[in-house]
Amino acid sequence: MFHFRWKTRNFLIINNSFYIIHSIMTGKSTLFNQVRSNVIFQSVDETLLRKVYNSPKKVEYSNNKIVFEDGDNGNCLYLVISGGVKISKYMRTGEEIVLGILHVGDFFGELDLIDRRKRSARATAIGRCTLVRLGRKAFDLLISSSPAFALNLLHMVTLRLRSNNLTYVM
Questions:
Q1: Helix (H/G/I), strand (E/B), else coil: 64
Q2: What tens digit of pLDDT does each residue of 107-141 get?
Q3: Helix, strand, or coil here: 85?
Q4: In principle, which of 13, 94, 119, 150 could form an S-S bond with 2, CB 3.0–4.6 Å?
Q5: Which runs of consecutive H residues, i.e. helices, occur in the chain?
Q6: For residue 21, how many other CB atoms are within 10 A of its CB?
Q7: Which residues touch 91 (CB under 8 Å, ≥6 apart)?
Q8: Coil, strand, or helix at residue 146?
């Protein structure tokens, strides 16, 4: 188990699963507020976020439904609004290796937007989950216009790499 604090968020990593520890929200939570609370948007200018948010693509998946397959074309990242997502890879032997379990407040699918290559793993819904898709155009605008977004992205990708190093290399 690994616990740390970054900016105003607390994180917990247990067996390669990321948990973002949220304080309980009071009042009615709109989809925009749920998106806004995602760790990748910490300190991002709200005007810019509203500009890229103009038409969110909310998608829902039932338990064990595939969000995307290893090798698919990647044209968006996903924000986890409810439920969870398992990121996994199948070995040549057919064995499934779970790379991570993602929860509310997390995101995935960013690697394909960064390196413009195909998906490098499978994403599967855990239970019923709600995701919001952020397309390539919005992602590129955020990367080029928001240092906070770029730093949040870099920080989370680094944390995932470090977690994988601790899990699979040691």
A1: coil
A2: 999 999 999 999 999 999 999 999 999 999 999 99
A3: strand
A4: 13
A5: 31-36, 46-53, 110-115, 136-145, 147-164
A6: 12
A7: 97
A8: coil
Torsion of CA 53, 102, 96, 65, to 10 degrees: -50
Q: Which two tokens stand for residue 67?
A: 């969000």
Query: Per this entry, what is the length of the chain?
Result: 170
DSSP class of 63: T
Whether residue 7 is predicted with pLDDT greater than 60 in this model: the reply is no
Please report, for residues 33, 34, 69, 116, the alpha-carbon distance to residue 120 in angstroms, rounded to integers and kept in the order given: 30, 27, 8, 11
Percent of the chain at pLDDT > 70 equals 79
Q: Three-state DSSP class for 166?
A: helix
- Residue 25 or 95, more confident: 95
Q: Which residue has the tokens 């992205």?
A: 153
**128 and 60 in contact (C-beta within 8 Å)?**
yes
**Structure tokens of 56?**
């969110």
CA distance 18 to 26: 24
Enter the pTM of the model.
0.78
